Amino acid sequence: MKQVEKRKNRLPSSKMAKRNNVTGYLFMTPFLILFTTFTMIPIAVAMGLSLTNYNLVERPEFIGLSNYVNLILEDDVFLKSLGNTIVFALLTGPTGYIASFLMAWLITLMKKGRGAFALAFYAPSLTSGVAMATIWLIIFSGDRNGYLNNFLLNIGLITEPILWTKDATYLKWVIVLISVWMSMGTGFLVFLAGLQNIDPSIYEAARMDGMKNRFQELRYITLPLMKPQLLFGAVNSVVGAFAIFDVATSVAGMPSPNYAAHTIVAHLYDYAFIRMNMGYASAVAMILFLMTFIVGRICFYVFRSED
Amino acid sequence: MRSVILDTLTGKRVPRRVDFAHILLVLCMLALVCFTALPMLAMVCRAFMPLDELYVYPPRIIVRRPTFSNFSDLLNSLNASEVPFTRYIFNSLLTTGATVFLTIFVSCAGAYGLAKFKPRGSKTIFAVITSALMFSSYVTQIPNYLIVTELGLVNSYWALILPKIAVAYNFFLVKQFADQLPDSILEAARIDGAGELKVFWTVAMPMLKPAWSTLAVFSFVSNWNDYFSALVYINKDAMKTLPLALQTLAGGAGVVARSGSVGAATLLTTVPTIVIFCILRGRVMQTMTYSGIKS
């Protein structure tokens, strides 16, 4: 108390506030400069470029909403990529999210072997999609030598090997499966930490009050207490689910058979860095941005904390 | 239920009541672990398989006669080509290391400044950063490419480092943790006459260790595995990073003869992230406790 008074005497509070402002901003300067340069300005530039025709050589030419109109009305491949992205996102996002929550929940119920289970479950999301693709291509190889074909032939489920990565109908499911495999992601760790952080006495108190089983606990105690973590996990899985690219291109190739694994990001890459049509590609980027942002806001609404 | 699962797993004590649901639960967990672990197991084994085992029919997952020859093939014979494989490892280590190092300092300083000094406008700044969590980096890729080109950084290490230092996700993680730092300890250091930089460096940074260890893991994993940046910014062979080099190695002509090397390269690309995670796992868990978003 004495010391605080001494400090106050040394510096009047308005001066203190000013000094805090300056020091605070000094600490934040490096981050703010880089963040503005490589995130904030780029978002604005991408919005602007999406209204232009720009090929890197000539000056960008303003063409209004033409890029968007063309994307939606003329570009069948884009519509296909949009459809694929939505299907991939709907299948992998929630599956990965729910699986990682369940896994985290089950692991906290265990007393031994937590670390090993956690690692076995989390390791896939530490791997590089491009590196693992070399293994996936062997697992899903279209001849009898592929692990999956061999297994299915052995148990008699199929009689002829299936062209998993060449046939458009199977390819989609292969990509979904691999993406789910990789998407246990950060959600898992956040959930695990959140679960371990819940005070056990809350559960005990609830049991006294007549809480019957673990599922009731989950519904009425665990989930409400974990809203902030659930939201963080959801936002991350939304962003990840809409951005499937590495896996799809390295397993299916680019362009993939019948565009079955063509995603929005693949379309963006194609127009931006192969065809050098930056304006059009920026419009694709803005649509990706809008999709993730809207779904992200919905997550914020669903997982809002009441306090 | 807690003990039933455990006892069923370890078989220590006969559970009083083993019902169908519990067995199903344990089976589901084991099935899930098989699903996640089998491809990893195949990946590890293939790196050590001699060529004849790689192409044996029926295909094997488990290696019978493990060998290191795939690794020596990868590291030696490829040295004869223009760019030795070790160069890609070096490129990946250097760019990932530098990015992790810089993002730790920049994010910690920024988050500390925002959380502990709460300068005017900090609420708005934090709201902007939080909403930036919802952009995927692909959205800003085109303007970033233009900026990197404008700065003359294409085909340089900086192209792979500079755009990835100030990441909203990293800032967010540290900020949530920095909020919990007790002001009294910082104040005590100030009264002892330490300057603000010294307080940050000798008092705040050690206390933020769980946060920046987590950041180190996440940043290492995402940058080490980052394929898109190198794809966009790098077109010189000698500047490629591991994922890009591995893709080149795994495709094209003569791939059957190289499949041993591909297996070794895949393992070399995968192992570092897992090692880093294992080392820092405990600290990661400590930070993740604070990482929720209150909306």
Structure overview:
The complex is a heterodimer of chains A (307) and B (295). With 307 residues, chain A is an all-alpha fold. Chain A has helices at residues 2-10, 13-49, 66-73, 76-109, 114-122, 129-139, 147-154, 168-182, 185-196, 200-208, 214-225, 227-242, 246-252, 264-274, 278-302; strands at 52-53, 61-62. Chain A has a single domain (75-302), classed as Orthogonal Bundle (MetI-like fold). Chain A has a two-stranded antiparallel sheet. The model of chain A is unreliable at 1-9 (pLDDT under 50). Chain B is mainly α. In chain B, 69% of the residues lie in helices and 0% in strands. Chain B is built from 15 helices and no strands. Chain B has helices at residues 2-10, 20-47, 51-54, 69-76, 85-117, 122-132, 141-150, 157-161, 168-178, 183-191, 196-207, 209-224, 228-233, 242-250, 255-288. The longest helix of chain B is centred in the last third of the chain and has 34 residues, at 255-288. Chain B is globular, with a radius of gyration of 24 Å. At the A-B interface, helix 2, helix 4, helix 5, helix 6 and helix 7 of A face helix 1, helix 2, helix 5, helix 6 and helix 7 of B.
